[in-house]
Amino acid sequence: MSNPNEKYVPKSLYPTKTKLTITLALVGIIGFYLISSIQTESFIVNFFLKIGNVTELVGRFFPPDWSYAQQVWSKLFETIHMAIISSTIATLISIPFCLLTARNITTNKYLYNTMRFILNIIRTVPDIVLAVVFVGLFGIGVFSGIIALIIFAIGILVKLMSETIESIDMNPSEAIKASGGNTLQIIWYAVVPQVLPQFISFGLYVFEVNIRASVVLGLVGAGGVGQLINTQINFLNYPAVMTIVIIIFVVVVIIDYISSKLREGLV
Amino acid sequence: MIEFKNLSLTYPNGTQGLKNINIKINKGEFVVIVGLSGAGKSTFIRSINRLVTPTAGELHVEGEDILQYKGRDLRELRKKIGMIFQSYNLVHRSTVLKNVIAGRLGYTSTLRSIFNMYPTEDIELAYENLKRVNIENKLYSRADELSGGQQQRVSIARVLTQQPNVILADEPVASLDPPTSHQVMTYLKQINREDNITTIVNLHFIDMAMEYADRIIGMRDGEVVYDGPASKVNEGTFEEIYGRSIREEDMRGGKEDVES
C-alpha cells in the first residue's frame, strides 16, 4: 500500500504499456535483422571492409570506351521503338478496362469486382517475370519484350485511369442520361472530356516507365539496349558497359524531361 | 399529360421519398413545386424522367405507364423530357455548342454522335436556341469560362435542342443571384408560353413561385399538402405547406433590379 501522505510524481512521460510495446517492437526488429543477416551471411559492415574491391572495380569502368558508342545507337533506338509500340498499344487496350474497373461507370458489382481482381493479378506480376515468361514463349528478342511491356503498362494505366474516372463530376453524365443518351454517348460526351488530359498524361508517363523498364528487360533477352549490357558484362568489357550506361542515362533524362514538360502543359 | 396514380417511392435505406401521390398535370401548364429541402420535390420531378424509379403505383406520361420502361423505351421517354439542374451540369471542358448539341444525342446514332456528324438542321437548331437565350456570341467558349447565369442559359438551350414536350427544372435558380434568377425564370416562362411546353419547376422561394407559376403544388415529407392555382395562394398557404412561419430566406427578392 502506498503512503497517502507521499506525493505522487509520474515516473515517465509515457504510460508503462506504451513503453513496453515500443521496447518489444524494437527488440523484434533488431532480432529479425540479425537473423536475416546471419542467414544470408551479408553484414552491412562488409560494404566498408570491401570498399577496396569496389573502388578497384569502379576503376575498371573508366575511362568509358567511346569508340563503342557507335554500336549502342541501333540498340538504343530499338529500346525506344519498343517503348513507343508498347505504350501506344497498351494505351488503346486499357481504355475499355479503365471503364470496367471504375465503380461509377460499371455499376454492376459482379462485373466490377471480377475486372478489378483480374487487373490486380496482372499488376502483381513484376515486369522482369513477364519478360522471362514471354522470352520462354516467343523466344529471345524484341517481340517478347514488347508483349511484356504492354501487359506491364496496362496494369499501371488501368489502375491510374480507373481512379481518375472514379473522381469525376457525375453531374454532366446525369444531364446526358436525362436527355436520352445511351451509355456510350454518356461516356463520350460526359466522361471523356473530363479525363482526356489525364489520360494523355498517363500515356506519356507509361512511355517514360517503359523506356526504363525495357532497359532492364534486355538483361533477360527481351531485346533492346539491355541485351547489349548483358553481353558486354559477360565479356568483362567494362569500359563499353560504362559507355552504354552513360548514353542510357542521358537519353532517359532527356525523354523524361520532354515528357514531363508535355504533361505539365496538359493538366 | 402527366398523371401520378397512388405513386409512392421508398429508397433502399427505408426513407419514403414519395407517399401516395395523386396528381394530374395538363399539357402546357407551368407548375411550381414548393417545399422545404427533403420534402420530396426532387424525387417527384426525377420520377417523371425515371432518374429515380417509384416503387408503387402508376405514373402515366402521355397515356402510358412509364414505370416498366427499360433501355430504348426509357431513352425515348427521356428524349422528350428536358431537364435543367441546380448546378447546370454542363461539361466544363467542352464548348458551349458541344454542350448544346448534346441535346440531340437521343436522336442521333452512337456512331454519328462519336464522330460529331450531326445533320446541318441540328446544328442550326442548336444555334437558334442559343440565340433564344441570348448567348450565341459565346458559341465556342468553354463552358467553365461562363458565369453561373450564362451556364444556366446554355443548359436551357441544351434542353430546347431536345425539342421536348416537358421541361423539368430542379431548383434552377438556387445557385444564382436574385436578378439572374429572375432572368432564368423569365426565359423558362417565355418558352412555356411560346412553345406550349409543360414546365415543372422545383423552387423554395415563395415570391418566385407566386410570380411565375400557373399552379402551385406544395410538398412536405413526401406528401402533396397543397395543390391549387397560383392566384389563390398567399403567405398563409406557404406557412401551411412549410409547417412553420415564413422567413426572409424563403424570399428571393431582386425583381426590381431586373425591371430597372
Give me the secondary-structure topology.
The complex is a heterodimer of chains A (267) and B (260).
Chain A: H1 16-40, H2 46-49, H3 51-61, H4 69-100, H5 109-124, H6 127-138, H7 142-166, H8 171-178, H9 183-218, H10 225-234, H11 238-266
Helix pairs in contact in A: 4-7, 4-9, 4-10, 5-7, 6-7, 7-9, 8-9, 9-10, 9-11, 10-11
Chain B: E1 2-10, E2 16-25, E3 30-34, H1 41-48, E4 56-61, E5 64-65, H2 71-79, E6 81-84, H3 96-101, H4 110-114, H5 120-132, H6 148-161, E7 166-170, H7 178-195, E8 198-203, H8 206-212, E9 215-220, E10 223-229, H9 235-242, H10 255-259
Parallel strand pairs in B: 3-8, 3-9, 6-7, 7-8
Antiparallel strand pairs in B: 1-2, 1-4, 4-5, 9-10
Structural overview:
Chain B: This is Phosphonate transport system ATP-binding protein. The complex is a heterodimer of chains A (267) and B (260). By secondary structure, chain A is mainly α. Chain A has 11 helices and no strands. Chain A has a single domain (71-266), classed as MetI-like fold (Orthogonal Bundle). With 260 residues, chain B is α/β, with parallel strands linked by helices. Chain B has a single domain (2-259), classed as Rossmann fold, CATH 3.40.50. A 6-stranded mixed beta sheet of chain B has the order 6-7-8-3-9-10, with helices on both faces. A 4-stranded antiparallel beta sheet of chain B has the order 2-1-4-5, with helices on one face. The chains are: A mainly alpha (267), B alpha/beta (260). Chain A binds chain B through residues 169, 171-172, 174-182, 184-185, 188-190, 193-194, 196-197, and chain B through 49, 51, 75-83, 85, 87, 89-94, 98, 102-103, 105-108, 110, 113-114, 155, 158-159, 162.
